Amino acid sequence: MSNVVIKVENLSKSYLINHQGQESYTALRDVLANGAKNFVKKMASPFAANTPRLKDTQEEFYALKDVSFEIKQGDRVGIIGRNGAGKSTLLKVLSRITEPTKGRVTIDGRVASLLEVGTGFHPELTGRENIFLNGAILGMSRVEIKRKFDEIVAFAEVEKFLDTPVKRYSSGMYVRLAFAVAAHLESEILVIDEVLAVGDAQFQKKCLGKMEAISAEGRTVLFVSHNMATISSLCEKSILLDTGELTQMGQASNVILAYYSQGSASPGAFDYSASSKIVGDEYVKLLAGSIVNANDCSWIFHIRT
């Protein structure tokens, strides 16, 4: 379809993890004792073959596994999942920072990314210079950047420090300027990782309003966050990742419920059975509880009497 701006087909991204084949940590006395034993053995049998050393081994780790989805123009899509689910890796692939191991990604339009504090900024350059640098990286002309310059500065609220090298900015100032640049320069797709948490509540609200306005203009927003209230208020659709696999995509509220139902990910799930923490008294102890039905929010409690 012509209004599909991001199409991901069977996307996988793997990394090689090295595991050194050696014994666990030993004390100095153990090293000396083993050295003495080997010396004696060598003297007793000088022609005996040496014990082969353990070799390093490699493990292929899949950060993303066979992920497929489509995003249309103007969609606001939240990407959620537990730590290590593959959210940031997916954004890096979509932003062309890293290449996929397998599969295909088709993107129609320019992508502006804000993946971590200071992404795309040169620390020695001033805020003013970094605005023009980021615009040039996005393929915009100097005329286009100048047209948006005053809006960017006003949104970021860093007028006093505009000619100061950004290495002297606080993390909050960094994020304000970086978001302002990414949001105001005319890219068709805006990709935001959870860096807005660095800013204060007022600026976060300001950013959410800007992302809604961007979507209304027909631009696409991808937003990663662990704040489900933010995802629910901003995003119409959501993608749930779990250990690199796409487990659900659809209406944001439904996907959020699916995320909450993932055992310990649920804010209404707890387990004290293997904990030293005692909830109760000598008559009754609460061991565990969880939400088992998302429709009527029924609960199951395990209580020992």
Explained architecture:
This protein is α/β, with parallel strands linked by helices and 305 residues long. The chain contains 8 helices and 12 strands. It has 2 domains: 66-259, Rossmann fold (3-Layer(aba) Sandwich), CATH 3.40.50; 268-304, no CATH class. The protein has helices at residues 28-44, 87-94, 127-137, 142-156, 171-184, 201-216, 228-234, 252-260; strands spanning 4-19, 57-72, 76-80, 102-107, 111-114, 189-192, 220-224, 237-242, 245-251, 270-271, 285-293, 298-304. Strand 6 (189-192), helix 6 (201-216) and strand 7 form a beta-alpha-beta unit. Helix 3 (127-137) crosses helix 4, helix 3 runs parallel beside helix 5 (171-184) and helix 4 crosses helix 5. The model is unreliable at 296-305 (pLDDT under 50).
What ranges have pLDDT less than 50 throughout 5 or more consecutive residues? 296-305
CATH topology of the largest domain: Rossmann fold
The CATH homologous superfamily name of the largest domain equals P-loop containing nucleotide triphosphate hydrolases
Shape summary: globular
**In percent terms, what proportion of residues is strand?**
25-35%
Order of helices and strands: EHEEHEEHHHEHEHEEHEEE
Protein structure class: alpha/beta
Please, how many domains? Answer: 2
**Count of helices?**
8
User: Gap between N and C termini, in Å?
Assistant: 61 Å
How do the strands of the widest beta sheet line up side by side?
Answer: 5-6-7-3-8-9
CATH class of the largest domain: Alpha Beta
Largest sheet: 6 strands, mixed
* Rg (CA only): 26 Å
Helix content: 25-40%
Beta-strand segment tally: 12
User: Per CATH, which architecture of the largest domain?
Assistant: 3-Layer(aba) Sandwich
**Assembly type:** single chain
Round the mean pLDDT to the nearest integer and report it: 80
